[in-house]
Design a protein that fits this description.
- The chain is of the alpha/beta class.
- It has 2 domains: 5-254, 3-Layer(aba) Sandwich (Peroxisomal Thiolase, Chain A, domain 1); 265-421, 3-Layer(aba) Sandwich (Peroxisomal Thiolase, Chain A, domain 1).
- It has 14 helices and 16 strands.
- Strands 1, 2, 5, 6, 7, 9, 10, 11, 12, 15 and 16 form an 11-stranded mixed beta sheet that branches. Strands 3-4-8 form a 3-stranded mixed beta sheet, with no helix packed on it. It has a two-stranded antiparallel sheet with strand order 13-14.
- Helix 1 packs across helix 13 (351-365), helix 3 packs parallel to helix 6 (146-156) and helix 10 (283-296) crosses helix 11 (314-328).
- The longest helix has 17 residues, at 72-88.
């Protein structure tokens, strides 16, 4: 019999909202959390804005040893995983360690610590042959991003499958898909699944500057992220993390767990086209959406809301608008679509998991998050993008999609608990 997978816990670290409750308040208000970069002087860069998290590791319960050892992204992962675990109501004695797994998505790993430590050992880049005597003991952990997943597993006592998924900007979605597959195949009963990235550093900003992918709208940071708007000119870099507790359905029901939603379909495709470019017809994303709906045994007309990738680049917004039309047909014009990146920026490998947390909370609270800053819809983006204000609406089926450099296209379908039980 096919094993079913449900979400029983949610934890979030996001710009403008530490914790799932604060995150939901931000989404419901439509307030943006984008601002001028404060981590370093961004004056020399083309794009000088970002969505930063007001994160205090001490206030979030991390020890001095953990703070010294762990990169900012790993700290995000650990804190959001702890919140999700607590939210699930699970206790250590409820599950055998070998039945508990971790699946973490990250695009750039421990970037901030790796860049900082390289600057130290190379004397600010002055020396090609670096002096390893100045290296911190944990430098290897910064180089190997799987260390982040290990930190979460160690903290929660998970001795089942532990994996780091790195597929660019779809990492957060793909880590959840991987976790679901582990439960469906019987390799685990419960998996902590999510994504974490803290990429707001000079090297990351410089990389996206060279691609001209990030916005140069530095004079108005609060309105710089404008998905689907005619004036959009690039995405706003962000940071954060989110974890979900995924659990086998019968097990969750037997212990009386609160169920946010069931994951009923998931699929990924690659465009094999260009490292950063997208075909305007959205064919590969459409194929992923269709495959996910087919697995869920749902007609496209069942979709009540689409959580879009919505990065705010002209290429992406046009691409996925075409994909929605190709996969949902005329129903695409009747389906609310929005991008929460308009409020919290694009946190690379973390954003897919943060968006999945948003979808679970949207089902729970019957609310469609808005697309902030959408004042002048682009002519080629002609769907219902829920501009400016959240919309109260009962949601039974949500489609969440992601698009990543390298040609990655992913889609996940969630249904409400009542529909799952039926």
């Amino acid at each position: 019999m096919r094993r079913r997978v449900v979400i029983t816990g949610v934890g979030v670290i996001a710009p403008g909202g530490i914790g799932a409750k604060s995150f939901l308040e931000l989404l419901s208000s439509g307030v943006t959390a984008t601002r001028r970069i404060s981590f370093f002087d961004p004056g020399a860069y083309r794009s000088q804005v970002a969505a930063e998290c007001d994160f205090d590791p001490v206030a979030q319960g991390l020890t001095p040893q953990q703070i010294r050892r762990m990169d900012r992204a790993a700290q995000f992962a650990l804190v959001s995983a702890r919140e999700a675990w607590q939210d699930s109501g699970l206790e250590a004695d409820d599950i055998a360690p070998e039945d508990l797994g971790v699946s973490l998505g990250s695009a750039v790993g421990c970037t901030m610590s790796l860049e900082r430590e390289y600057a130290v050992v190379s004397d600010g880049g002055a020396h090609w042959l670096v002096n390893q005597g100045y290296a911190v003991p944990h430098l290897f952990d910064y180089l190997v991003p799987s260390s982040m997943a290990i930190e979460v597993a160690r903290d929660l006592g998970a001795e089942g499958p532990v994996a780091l998924i790195s597929t660019g900007c779809t990492s957060g979605l793909d880590s959840i898909k991987h976790a679901r597959d582990l439960i469906m195949e019987g390799s685990a009963e419960v998996v902590l699944a999510g994504g974490a990235d803290a990429p707001i550093s000079p090297i990351t900003v410089a990389c996206f500057d060279s691609l001209r992918a990030t916005t140069p709208s530095n004079d108005d940071p609060e309105h710089a992220s404008r998905p689907f708007d005619r004036r959009r000119n690039g995405f706003v870099l962000g940071e954060g993390a989110a974890f979900l507790v995924l659990e086998e359905w019968h097990r969750a029901r037997a212990r009386g767990a609160h169920i946010y939603a069931e994951i009923v379909g998931a699929a990924s495709r690659s465009n094999a086209f260009h490292m950063t470019g997208l075909r305007p017809d959205g064919r590969e994303m459409a194929a992923a959406i269709t495959s996910a709906l087919d697995e869920a045994r749902l007609d496209p007309t069942a979709v009540d809301y689409i959580n879009a990738h919505g990065s705010g680049t002209k290429q992406n917004d046009h691409h996925e608008t075409s994909a929605f039309k190709a996969s949902l047909g005329s129903h695409a014009y009747r389906t609310p679509v929005s991008s929460i990146k308009s409020m919290i920026g694009h946190s690379l490998g973390a954003i897919g998991s943060i968006e999945m947390a948003a979808c679970a909370l949207a089902i729970e609270h019957s609310v469609v998050p808005p697309t902030a800053n959408l004042l002048e819809p682009s002519p080629e983006c002609d769907l219902d993008y829920v501009p400016l204000q959240a919309r109260a609406q009962q949601l039974n089926t949500i489609l969440s999609v992601g698009s990543g450099f390298g040609g990655f296209q992913s889609a996940i379908v969630l249904v409400a608990p009542d529909r799952a039980a039926a």
